[in-house]
Amino acid sequence: MKQKEQNETGPFPRTPKGGGTLALNWWTEPLSEVLAQFTAVYDGSVNVKFWNCFCKRPGGSGGENVCGWINTFFPYITERSGNDKYKLNTSLQWDSVSFRGPMPSQYLPSLGVAPITWKYYSQTFQLQAYAGMYGYTQDPQTHTVRPHAGVWLENQGVKT
Question: Where are the domains of the chain?
Fold first, then answer.
């Protein structure tokens, strides 16, 4: 697939502040290959082998590991021990990875939550702040999927 030039003022400029490059080829190259398959379907060419490898590679006996091309959308995962340390996802090459991919619990959440205590004169408000991806909609005519992201607060109660 011929890659289009990125607008320098777009959301991901080629040159970050301070010069240099973003040095993300380790992720953007496999990601571009996966995104090219989406474009190919739009153009009428369906790679059945690719679409059968969404979560798992064919020929395996199962197991909990995710070894399909969905991994290209998750360049970072957590350590297997369940702690908060992050590492690079080494299962980005969907067509050449082993059957050993990340466990579902290693994927980072798409919604962050943080408690907030707001003291206002004699009252204390308990809030929850949310930020991230929270859903999607599909256009009924074009069938394109649009993710929804946002930030919002939820009132957890007032203490006086």
Answer: 25-106, 111-159
